[in-house]
From TrEMBL:
<feature type="domain" description="LIM zinc-binding">
    <location>
        <begin position="161"/>
        <end position="218"/>
    </location>
</feature>
<dbReference type="GO" id="GO:0001725">
    <property type="term" value="C:stress fiber"/>
</dbReference>
<dbReference type="GO" id="GO:0030036">
    <property type="term" value="P:actin cytoskeleton organization"/>
</dbReference>
<dbReference type="GO" id="GO:0003712">
    <property type="term" value="F:transcription coregulator activity"/>
</dbReference>
<keyword id="KW-0007">Acetylation</keyword>
<keyword id="KW-0010">Activator</keyword>
<feature type="domain" description="LIM zinc-binding">
    <location>
        <begin position="99"/>
        <end position="160"/>
    </location>
</feature>
<dbReference type="InterPro" id="IPR001781">
    <property type="entry name" value="Znf_LIM"/>
</dbReference>
<keyword id="KW-0805">Transcription regulation</keyword>
<keyword id="KW-0963">Cytoplasm</keyword>
<dbReference type="GO" id="GO:0005634">
    <property type="term" value="C:nucleus"/>
</dbReference>
<dbReference type="GO" id="GO:0003779">
    <property type="term" value="F:actin binding"/>
</dbReference>
<dbReference type="GO" id="GO:0008270">
    <property type="term" value="F:zinc ion binding"/>
</dbReference>
<keyword id="KW-0677">Repeat</keyword>
<dbReference type="InterPro" id="IPR056807">
    <property type="entry name" value="LIM_FHL1/2/3/5_N"/>
</dbReference>
<comment type="function">
    <text>Recruited by SOX15 to FOXK1 promoters where it acts as a transcriptional coactivator of FOXK1.</text>
</comment>
<keyword id="KW-0804">Transcription</keyword>
Length: 279
Protein backbone atom coordinates (compact mmCIF):
# COMPACT_ATOMS: atom_id res chain seq x y z
CA UNK A 1 0.00 0.00 0.00
CA UNK A 2 1.50 3.38 -1.01
CA UNK A 3 2.20 6.03 1.69
CA UNK A 4 -0.35 8.80 1.99
CA UNK A 5 0.65 12.31 0.90
CA UNK A 6 -1.99 14.67 2.19
CA UNK A 7 -2.40 18.45 2.81
CA UNK A 8 -1.39 19.17 6.38
CA UNK A 9 -4.50 21.30 6.87
CA UNK A 10 -7.47 19.74 4.97
CA UNK A 11 -5.96 16.22 4.82
CA UNK A 12 -6.92 15.85 1.17
CA UNK A 13 -4.52 13.92 -1.00
CA UNK A 14 -1.92 15.96 -2.83
CA UNK A 15 -1.14 13.32 -5.45
CA UNK A 16 -1.40 14.88 -8.86
CA UNK A 17 -1.98 18.37 -7.38
CA UNK A 18 0.14 21.46 -6.91
CA UNK A 19 1.21 22.08 -3.37
CA UNK A 20 3.52 24.32 -1.33
CA UNK A 21 5.92 23.13 1.34
CA UNK A 22 6.01 25.31 4.47
CA UNK A 23 7.88 24.44 7.67
CA UNK A 24 8.39 20.89 6.39
CA UNK A 25 4.62 20.48 5.93
CA UNK A 26 2.83 20.26 2.53
CA UNK A 27 -0.28 22.35 1.82
CA UNK A 28 -2.67 22.44 -1.05
CA UNK A 29 -2.85 25.81 -2.76
CA UNK A 30 -6.22 26.89 -1.30
CA UNK A 31 -5.15 25.97 2.24
CA UNK A 32 -1.78 27.66 1.88
CA UNK A 33 -3.38 30.88 0.63
CA UNK A 34 -5.98 30.90 3.43
CA UNK A 35 -3.42 30.16 6.14
CA UNK A 36 -0.39 32.17 5.11
CA UNK A 37 -1.34 34.81 2.55
CA UNK A 38 -1.74 38.46 3.60
CA UNK A 39 -4.92 40.42 3.06
CA UNK A 40 -4.77 43.38 0.69
CA UNK A 41 -5.29 46.61 2.61
CA UNK A 42 -7.16 48.10 -0.34
CA UNK A 43 -9.57 45.39 -1.60
CA UNK A 44 -9.52 43.24 1.59
CA UNK A 45 -9.01 40.06 -0.45
CA UNK A 46 -6.22 37.54 0.02
CA UNK A 47 -3.02 38.10 -1.89
CA UNK A 48 -2.48 34.73 -3.51
CA UNK A 49 0.84 32.90 -3.56
CA UNK A 50 1.27 33.56 -7.27
CA UNK A 51 0.41 37.32 -7.08
CA UNK A 52 3.01 40.10 -6.82
CA UNK A 53 2.70 41.53 -3.33
CA UNK A 54 3.71 45.03 -2.28
CA UNK A 55 3.84 46.25 1.29
CA UNK A 56 4.29 49.61 3.00
CA UNK A 57 4.36 50.28 6.76
CA UNK A 58 2.92 46.86 7.70
CA UNK A 59 0.21 47.16 5.05
CA UNK A 60 0.05 44.72 2.15
CA UNK A 61 -1.34 45.28 -1.35
CA UNK A 62 -1.94 43.50 -4.63
CA UNK A 63 0.21 45.14 -7.26
CA UNK A 64 -2.87 46.40 -9.08
CA UNK A 65 -4.32 47.79 -5.79
CA UNK A 66 -1.22 49.83 -4.91
CA UNK A 67 -2.45 53.04 -6.54
CA UNK A 68 -2.66 56.80 -5.93
CA UNK A 69 -5.69 57.71 -3.83
CA UNK A 70 -6.37 60.78 -6.04
CA UNK A 71 -5.55 59.95 -9.66
CA UNK A 72 -5.55 56.12 -9.46
CA UNK A 73 -2.08 55.91 -11.01
CA UNK A 74 -0.13 52.74 -10.19
CA UNK A 75 2.51 53.36 -7.54
CA UNK A 76 4.30 50.04 -8.04
CA UNK A 77 7.30 51.70 -9.66
CA UNK A 78 6.64 55.35 -8.78
CA UNK A 79 7.73 57.57 -5.87
CA UNK A 80 4.81 58.24 -3.51
CA UNK A 81 3.87 59.79 -0.18
CA UNK A 82 1.46 58.74 2.54
CA UNK A 83 -0.89 61.43 3.83
CA UNK A 84 -3.25 60.39 6.65
CA UNK A 85 -2.99 56.72 5.53
CA UNK A 86 -3.82 57.65 1.94
CA UNK A 87 -1.19 56.90 -0.72
CA UNK A 88 -0.50 59.76 -3.12
CA UNK A 89 1.78 60.01 -6.13
CA UNK A 90 4.24 62.91 -6.03
CA UNK A 91 2.23 65.00 -8.50
CA UNK A 92 -0.99 64.74 -6.50
CA UNK A 93 0.78 65.32 -3.21
CA UNK A 94 2.49 68.46 -4.50
CA UNK A 95 -0.71 69.82 -6.05
CA UNK A 96 -2.62 69.33 -2.82
CA UNK A 97 -0.12 69.94 -0.05
CA UNK A 98 3.06 71.60 -1.36
CA UNK A 99 3.52 75.36 -1.48
CA UNK A 100 3.89 77.35 -4.66
CA UNK A 101 6.77 79.75 -5.17
CA UNK A 102 5.38 83.30 -5.09
CA UNK A 103 7.99 84.39 -7.64
CA UNK A 104 7.61 81.79 -10.42
CA UNK A 105 4.24 80.27 -9.38
CA UNK A 106 5.66 76.76 -9.69
CA UNK A 107 5.40 74.06 -7.03
CA UNK A 108 8.19 73.84 -4.49
CA UNK A 109 8.91 70.13 -4.63
CA UNK A 110 9.48 68.25 -1.37
CA UNK A 111 13.16 68.03 -0.53
CA UNK A 112 14.18 71.04 -2.62
CA UNK A 113 15.85 74.07 -1.05
CA UNK A 114 13.35 76.77 -0.28
CA UNK A 115 12.87 79.94 1.76
CA UNK A 116 9.78 80.82 3.79
CA UNK A 117 9.02 84.33 5.05
CA UNK A 118 5.83 86.01 6.25
CA UNK A 119 3.68 83.06 5.16
CA UNK A 120 5.09 82.91 1.62
CA UNK A 121 7.46 80.41 0.01
CA UNK A 122 10.17 80.80 -2.61
CA UNK A 123 12.54 78.48 -4.41
CA UNK A 124 15.95 79.40 -3.05
CA UNK A 125 17.02 80.55 -6.53
CA UNK A 126 13.86 82.70 -6.90
CA UNK A 127 14.36 84.71 -3.69
CA UNK A 128 16.47 87.53 -5.09
CA UNK A 129 17.31 91.12 -4.19
CA UNK A 130 14.93 93.56 -5.89
CA UNK A 131 17.83 95.85 -6.75
CA UNK A 132 20.85 93.74 -7.79
CA UNK A 133 18.71 90.66 -8.65
CA UNK A 134 21.22 88.32 -7.01
CA UNK A 135 19.94 85.35 -4.93
CA UNK A 136 19.81 86.30 -1.25
CA UNK A 137 20.08 82.71 0.00
CA UNK A 138 20.89 82.53 3.70
CA UNK A 139 22.21 86.12 3.87
CA UNK A 140 20.44 88.87 5.81
CA UNK A 141 17.81 90.86 3.95
CA UNK A 142 15.48 93.79 4.56
CA UNK A 143 11.83 93.78 3.44
CA UNK A 144 10.30 96.95 2.04
CA UNK A 145 6.58 96.58 1.27
CA UNK A 146 6.43 93.62 -1.16
CA UNK A 147 10.09 93.84 -2.12
CA UNK A 148 13.21 92.38 -0.54
CA UNK A 149 16.71 93.79 -0.58
CA UNK A 150 20.12 92.49 0.39
CA UNK A 151 21.62 94.69 3.10
CA UNK A 152 24.19 96.49 0.88
CA UNK A 153 21.54 97.41 -1.73
CA UNK A 154 19.04 98.56 0.90
CA UNK A 155 21.58 100.78 2.62
CA UNK A 156 22.68 102.23 -0.70
CA UNK A 157 19.09 102.89 -1.80
CA UNK A 158 17.22 103.83 1.38
CA UNK A 159 19.47 104.33 4.40
CA UNK A 160 20.04 107.98 5.45
CA UNK A 161 23.49 109.44 4.81
CA UNK A 162 25.56 111.30 7.32
CA UNK A 163 25.51 115.06 6.74
CA UNK A 164 29.26 115.27 7.32
CA UNK A 165 30.87 112.17 5.74
CA UNK A 166 28.02 111.28 3.33
CA UNK A 167 28.25 107.59 4.22
CA UNK A 168 25.15 105.57 5.11
CA UNK A 169 23.93 105.26 8.69
CA UNK A 170 23.33 101.55 9.24
CA UNK A 171 22.13 102.09 12.80
CA UNK A 172 22.15 104.68 15.55
CA UNK A 173 23.35 108.18 14.84
CA UNK A 174 21.98 111.55 15.92
CA UNK A 175 19.69 114.12 14.34
CA UNK A 176 20.54 117.82 14.31
CA UNK A 177 18.40 120.37 12.48
CA UNK A 178 16.46 117.44 10.95
CA UNK A 179 19.66 116.05 9.41
CA UNK A 180 21.29 112.68 10.26
CA UNK A 181 24.84 112.35 11.57
CA UNK A 182 27.07 109.52 12.70
CA UNK A 183 27.74 109.99 16.41
CA UNK A 184 31.46 110.15 15.70
CA UNK A 185 30.86 112.79 13.00
CA UNK A 186 28.75 115.11 15.15
CA UNK A 187 31.52 117.13 16.80
CA UNK A 188 32.17 120.63 18.07
CA UNK A 189 33.06 122.93 15.19
CA UNK A 190 35.99 124.31 17.16
CA UNK A 191 37.59 121.57 19.32
CA UNK A 192 36.14 118.51 17.47
CA UNK A 193 34.88 116.91 20.69
CA UNK A 194 31.94 114.53 20.10
CA UNK A 195 28.68 116.21 21.08
CA UNK A 196 26.36 113.17 21.17
CA UNK A 197 24.84 112.92 24.66
CA UNK A 198 26.24 116.32 25.74
CA UNK A 199 24.81 119.81 26.03
CA UNK A 200 25.75 121.97 23.07
CA UNK A 201 24.62 125.08 21.25
CA UNK A 202 25.03 126.50 17.76
CA UNK A 203 26.04 129.61 15.92
CA UNK A 204 25.32 130.15 12.22
CA UNK A 205 23.97 126.56 12.11
CA UNK A 206 27.31 125.14 13.33
CA UNK A 207 27.33 123.14 16.59
CA UNK A 208 29.67 124.02 19.48
CA UNK A 209 30.35 122.55 22.87
CA UNK A 210 29.46 124.97 25.67
CA UNK A 211 33.08 125.60 26.58
CA UNK A 212 34.09 126.61 23.03
CA UNK A 213 30.97 128.66 22.47
CA UNK A 214 31.53 130.58 25.69
CA UNK A 215 35.17 131.15 24.87
CA UNK A 216 34.53 132.25 21.29
CA UNK A 217 31.24 134.13 21.35
CA UNK A 218 29.85 134.75 24.86
CA UNK A 219 30.12 138.15 26.52
CA UNK A 220 32.38 138.38 29.56
CA UNK A 221 31.34 139.15 33.08
CA UNK A 222 32.48 142.65 34.16
CA UNK A 223 33.48 141.26 37.56
CA UNK A 224 35.16 137.88 36.93
CA UNK A 225 35.86 138.15 33.17
CA UNK A 226 34.48 134.65 32.59
CA UNK A 227 31.98 133.97 29.77
CA UNK A 228 28.29 134.56 30.39
CA UNK A 229 26.49 131.78 28.50
CA UNK A 230 23.13 131.57 30.22
CA UNK A 231 23.24 127.74 29.89
CA UNK A 232 22.18 125.43 32.69
CA UNK A 233 19.76 128.00 34.13
CA UNK A 234 22.52 130.58 34.90
CA UNK A 235 21.05 134.10 35.32
CA UNK A 236 22.87 137.32 34.57
CA UNK A 237 22.42 141.07 34.89
CA UNK A 238 22.74 143.46 31.96
CA UNK A 239 23.20 147.23 32.31
CA UNK A 240 23.96 149.43 29.36
CA UNK A 241 26.71 147.55 27.46
CA UNK A 242 27.93 145.58 30.47
CA UNK A 243 26.92 142.17 31.85
CA UNK A 244 27.46 140.36 35.13
CA UNK A 245 26.84 136.87 36.43
CA UNK A 246 24.11 137.25 39.01
CA UNK A 247 26.42 136.22 41.90
CA UNK A 248 29.04 138.70 40.61
CA UNK A 249 26.66 141.67 40.59
CA UNK A 250 27.81 143.27 43.87
CA UNK A 251 28.74 146.69 45.16
CA UNK A 252 32.25 147.55 44.03
CA UNK A 253 33.04 148.97 47.47
CA UNK A 254 31.31 146.80 50.13
CA UNK A 255 30.54 143.70 48.01
CA UNK A 256 26.90 143.53 49.05
CA UNK A 257 24.66 141.88 46.41
CA UNK A 258 22.87 144.35 44.20
CA UNK A 259 20.47 141.80 42.71
CA UNK A 260 16.97 143.20 43.11
CA UNK A 261 18.28 146.31 44.82
CA UNK A 262 18.90 149.84 43.67
CA UNK A 263 22.42 150.75 42.58
CA UNK A 264 24.38 153.72 41.29
CA UNK A 265 26.98 153.67 38.51
CA UNK A 266 30.21 155.45 39.38
CA UNK A 267 32.46 155.36 36.33
CA UNK A 268 33.48 151.73 35.93
CA UNK A 269 32.15 150.94 39.40
CA UNK A 270 28.64 150.17 40.61
CA UNK A 271 27.71 151.13 44.17
CA UNK A 272 24.95 150.30 46.60
CA UNK A 273 22.80 153.11 48.00
CA UNK A 274 24.79 153.34 51.27
CA UNK A 275 28.19 153.47 49.65
CA UNK A 276 26.99 156.05 47.18
CA UNK A 277 25.60 158.20 49.99
CA UNK A 278 28.96 158.16 51.78
CA UNK A 279 30.81 159.57 48.82
Amino acid sequence: MADRFDCDNCKESLYGRKYIQSDDSPYCIPCYDSLFSNTCDECKELIGHDARELFYEDRHYHEHCFRCFRCDRSLADEPFTSQEDALLCNDCYCNEFSSKCVACDKIVMPGTRKLEYAGSTWHESCFICHSCEQPIGSKSFIPDKDEHYCVPCYEDKFAPRCTRCKKTLAKGGVTYRDEPWHKECFVCTSCKTQLAGQHFTSRDDSPYCLKCFGSLYAKKCEACSKPITGFGGGKYISFEDRQWHQPCFTCSQCSVSLVGAGFFPDGERILCRDCHSNL
